Amino acid sequence: GNCAATVPGETVERNGVRIHGPRNLASEVPSTASQLYAKNISAFFLHLFKDGAVQISPEDAIARETLVTRGGEVVNPRVREALGLPPAATA
Fold first, then answer.
1. What is the longest distance spanned by two Cα atoms in the chain?
2. pTM
3. For residues 81 and 73, is the Cβ–Cβ distance under 8 A?
4. Is 66 strand, coil or helix?
5. Cα–Cα distance for residue pair 49/65, rounded to 1 Å
């Protein structure tokens, strides 16, 4: 599980939160969902990689909006806000 309260193979409730602990999540979703997810991830990486290297341009909305950190700094405005960080300085 992805949290300490997960019980493998069970659904439990802790502090009003329902926690599902499936043993084999992949077998519980349609195979087409897995195929579509894989296609999306593949398209995303092919978009970011050019000539064998990551190419992240501030003008590229897809790269800009999905980038969380750069050079050890949290750069995504929504993530900064969620973490209680001040807005990033603009260059």
1. 50
2. 0.55
3. no
4. helix
5. 16
Q: How far is CA 16 from CA 7, 65, 86, in A?
A: 16, 33, 32
Provide the token pair at 4.
């300490």
- Own/partner pairs, 82-87, CB within 8 angstroms, 24+ separation: none
Under DSSP, is residue 19 helix (H, G, I), strand (E, B) or coil? strand
Please give the pLDDT value at position 91: 56
Q: Is 60 exposed, middle or buried (CB count within 10 Å of its CB: 0-12, 13-18, 19+)?
A: middle
State the DSSP H helix or E strand holding residue 82, giving kind and residue range, or none if neither: helix 77-82
pLDDT tens-digit profile of 53-75? 998 888 899 998 999 998 899 99
> Tokens standing for 58?
């501030």
Residues near 70 by Cβ (< 8 Å), separated by ≥ 6? 56
